[in-house]
Amino acid sequence: MHKDYNREFQIIDTKEKAYVLGLFYADGNIGSNDIQVRITLKEADSSLLYDIAKYFPFFYFHSKPKALELGCYKRELQEDFISNGCYSRKSYENRDNLRILYLSEELISHFIRGYFDGDGGCTLSLKENTGKKTQKRVYIYSVSLNLLNDIKGILFNKGIESCISMTDKSSMKRATMNIYKLTINTNSYKNFNAFLYKDATLFMERKKILFDKIIEETNFFIAKNTPNCKFCNSKRVVCDGWNYYKVKRQNYLCKDCGRHFSAPLNSDIQNEEDELLED
Length: 279
Description:
By secondary structure, this protein is of the alpha+beta class. It has helices at 15-27, 46-55, 75-83, 108-119, 145-157, 189-197, 205-216, and strands at residues 29-30, 36-42, 60-64, 67-73, 120-126, 133-142, 162-166, 180-184, 237-243, 249-254, 260-264, 275-276. Strand 3 (60-64) and strand 4 form a beta hairpin. Helix 1 runs parallel beside helix 4.
């Protein structure tokens, strides 16, 4: 049953509110010239919007071709989202203002899970016709470098390693602005998964299923022409994310000793231009 909005989002004090706010930070539309607050997900993920409406029945639904919109036309909700840092035009003039909202220790993971479900993802690629895994990636995109740095710092304090790079804009739809990518290090997948989904009541089921599958899969593809491990000289080295933020480099993970290092793209590890990523 549809109910009135009673300033539920004026104070973010439950994990469901924190999750929804994070999701709207990523994918929500906060009207700048009207009072709309809405988010649209593709049909495959529409069950999440129905789950949100169970907790917050003041939202309405609007069906679109192969998609579903969840929204509310209440000025008070718009004001409460903005007061909690979820601005209108956050991908443009307000992108540098996007920062992690101060939340309690119990709520911050739910906010980040919401943002991850909006602008993050997982990749598990298969080597064609073999079924062998060729690539795993867990990442979050944002136009706001400030926001990703905030998330990176929170994750680091939880023992979750990540790196930030600038994406190749030519491959992105929004090619007129810088888009950044926070990539979770392979050795932190399990910790990040546990951080995201502990006590979770709202989440995008499709992404959780894929992330769980990534955790379960241990067969890495060993890329051709990868350097031997700088620490133990093992040949069992796999790619572990790109690092474009300062210089074009490739991060590597040694499957034998479990340590990380990086080297310039297409370089020889012995040319002394490599970088150790841990002591």
